[in-house]
Amino acid sequence: MKICVGLSGGVDSSVAALLLKRQGYDVFAMFMQNWHDTEGTLHGDCEWEEDKFVAELVARKIGIPFYFVDLSGEYRQRVVDYMFDEYAHGRTPNPDVLCNSEIKFDAFLQKARALGADMVATGHYCRKEQAPDGSWKLLEGIDPGKDQSYFLCRLTQEQLACAMFPIGGMLKSEVRALAAEADLPSADKKDSQGICFVGKVDLPVFLQQKLASVEGEVVEVFDQWYADSAKYAADAALLASKEPSALSDGELLELSKPLDYSNIVFETETYRSGKHHVRKTRNKPNPWGVVAGRHEGAQFYTIGQRKGLAIGGHARPLFVLATDVGANRVYVGEGEDHKGLFRRVLRVAADELHWMRDELAMEIGAERRCRVRIRYRQELQDALLLMREGGLFVVFDKPQRSITPGQFAAFYAMPDPSDKWDAPELLGSGVI
């Protein structure tokens, strides 16, 4: 069997290639360049060239052929353009998820097949196994701190069938040790960070390649707004009075809607200032909030964001609660326990759902207990899935912090508590 390893220059893909070579497979490596532009990146102009250099050294050390492929056109069209469009509409995309389904296991796979590959292997920390019906299951990797199944939550059965994850049954420490024992050039290389194949970026600068910077207000929301909000009180009362499965479609839809702060408006007044009594204008005090600062574009911010607000004078950090791209407003709250950061219900539109195996798909009216992850490295959270006419509703047992439109919610099977090695199966996913 001929296997193409997507060799990135990092330690994970290097060890994946080493293991396959030692197991006797016909292995070759292929490095893909997916990005040329450097505007907004934080690691200099030639980071990809360094990665390619290390990848070539690794391939030479292992003794496998090395190829280079430029997929920057496909990456821009299928990942980056999607990313810009989502931010422009006030949502926060996850380009790494799209990179795997659209590039690594699609465009890259096609290039690998053209070179004779039967399978494509990557350095992802996840596993796959075959179900009794012949379909493929995607399971978490055994390293709880490194599992990357979340990033593969949009793969199809056809893509899984030709995918290999050689290090999914290893701990990161074991991978590092094996790389050091084999004296691989990537043994001590730090893990990559930031956007897949772009790297760490100054997001506003990066997005300004296509999205205009327009100054607007940052509004801090006070606790009094929640005390006076009829929706906030009604949502809390509804969740306290009914079991999730007893909620109607209309009630679930209402509970899944983010809070709307547009009723926080500011009346102005004029006053005279200084010894020359110069006439100035200011906002009248408002018990619901205050204009705490200015920003350069609401589309550059995401729910739960802490850094980049540049607003002082608070005992605790400020966090983004919501953005309104139409009004170009950003709403923030003080403290990581702020009421506006937490919700219990999210909705996935029916056409945004993806099930890893056909038999896992839920029919309208079906319910399923499972565990859910709404961001990478978040601990799995207990929840109830409710499939209704209006889409799939996820009702969490506990309020969740920073549920963000545009991100992916990934659904996992409940683990077997009697088996400490049991790894949850990734059932499916949907765009929040």
How would you describe this structure to a colleague?
With 432 residues, the chain is an alpha/beta fold. The protein has three domains: 2-123 and 166-207, HUPs (Rossmann fold, 3-Layer(aba) Sandwich), CATH 3.40.50; 216-336, no CATH class; 342-431, Translation factors (Elongation Factor Tu (Ef-tu), domain 3, Beta Barrel). It contains ten helices and 20 strands. The chain has a seven-stranded antiparallel beta sheet with strand order 14-18-17-16-19-20-15, covered by helices on one side. Strands 3-2-1-4-7 form a five-stranded parallel beta sheet, sandwiched between helices. Strands 11-8-13-12 form a four-stranded mixed beta sheet. Strand 5 and strand 6 (136-140) form a beta hairpin. The longest helix has 20 residues, at 95-114. The protein is globular. The model has no long low-confidence stretch (mean pLDDT 91).
Using brief descriptors, characterize the structure shown.
3 domains, 20 strands, Elongation Factor Tu (Ef-tu), domain 3, 432 residues, globular, 5-stranded parallel β-sheet
Layout of secondary structure:
Layout: E1 2-6, H1 11-22, E2 26-33, H2 47-62, E3 66-70, H3 72-88, H4 95-114, E4 119-121, E5 126-130, E6 136-140, H5 157-161, E7 163-164, H6 172-181, H7 203-207, E8 216-221, H8 223-228, H9 230-241, H10 249-256, E9 268-273, E10 278-283, E11 289-295, E12 318-324, E13 329-334, E14 342-348, E15 353-355, E16 367-373, E17 381-388, E18 391-401, E19 408-412, E20 426-431
Parallel strand pairs: 1-2, 1-4, 2-3, 4-7, 8-13
Antiparallel strand pairs: 5-6, 8-11, 9-10, 12-13, 14-18, 15-20, 16-17, 16-19, 17-18, 19-20
